[in-house]
TrEMBL record:
It comes from Mammaliicoccus lentus (Staphylococcus lentus). Keywords: Oxidoreductase. Transmembrane segments: none annotated. This is Glucose 1-dehydrogenase. Its EC number is 1.1.1.47. It comes from the Bacteria. PANTHER family: 3-OXOACYL-[ACYL-CARRIER-PROTEIN] REDUCTASE, SHORT-CHAIN DEHYDROGENASES/REDUCTASES FAMILY MEMBER. GO terms for molecular function: glucose 1-dehydrogenase [NAD(P)+] activity.
């Protein structure tokens, strides 16, 4: 039996990047996956590529009505939601002096408010099932400082995870946060950042960046029954950066 046999897993922001890799890994472990994203074209293409155990739902993660639509659609199709992965997020490198309030709030709404909305909306379903796993993707910058606003929201995700775990644990709903470091994505292959990446690797204790699959492996662990006594915890995948 596969590790996620017949589990229904909702992954936000999964039409590309790490989210897509998470979706592929869930399917390989026997799960059913719900891809949600603002990009309809990419999302539909991924769902078709992954086959009958994958569906796509257009989703603005900062919109409460969109969250209700996602949850209702999934329950209508598969009858339950076993796992929610709050993966959607954006970042900025703008300085605190140059960052506008509108730009700040856009990042807050996508990175932080969306996590609150996701947990709030899925909780009644998981309570009725008497089980569930919520996995909130934070960052190593939810543990140590980084860019303004991005860091703020990732610390908030870490805090919300702990608060929600205390609220939901009596209902056998586990809530954990995942803190990736530097991950090998197409962005790191761009010519203009290659040298910067090579220099940064030298500061990582393991002397390399992570592959997306290494983060997906953690997602599968937290989604599976193997992590049945883990809640309110931080799972760090950063090659030792935050241990310095």
């Amino acid at each position: 039996m596969k590790r996620l046999e017949n589990k229904v897993v909702v992954i936000t922001g999964s039409a590309q990047g790490m989210g897509k890799t998470h979706a592929e890994k869930v399917l390989s472990e026997g799960g059913k996956v719900v891809i949600t994203d603002i990009n309809e074209e990419l999302g539909n293409n991924v769902a078709q590529e992954l086959g009958e155990n994958a569906i796509f739902i257009r989703h603005d993660v900062s919109n409460e009505d969109d969250w209700k639509n996602v949850i209702d659609t999934v329950v209508d199709k598969w009858g339950r939601i076993d796992v929610l992965v709050n993966n959607a997020g954006i970042t900025t490198n703008t300085s605190i002096e140059d960052l506008t309030l509108d730009s700040y709030m856009k990042i807050v709404n996508i990175n932080q408010v969306s996590v609150f909305l996701g947990m709030k909306t899925v909780a009644p379903i998981m309570k009725a099932q008497k089980e569930g796993s919520i996995i909130n993707i934070s960052s190593m910058n939810g543990l140590v400082g980084g860019a303004i606003c991005y860091t703020d929201t990732k610390f908030a995700v870490r805090g919300m995870t702990k608060a929600a775990s205390r609220d939901l644990s009596p209902h056998n709903i586990r809530v954990n946060s995942v803190h990736p470091g530097v991950i090998q994505t197409p962005m790191l292959e761009l010519e203009e950042v290659k040298e910067q990446v090579e220099q940064f690797k030298k500061t990582i204790p393991m002397r390399r960046v992570a592959q997306t699959e290494e983060v997906s492996n953690m997602i599968v662990f937290l989604a599976s029954d193997e992590s049945s006594y883990s809640t309110g915890s931080e799972f760090v995948i950063d090659g030792g950066i935050t241990a310095l």
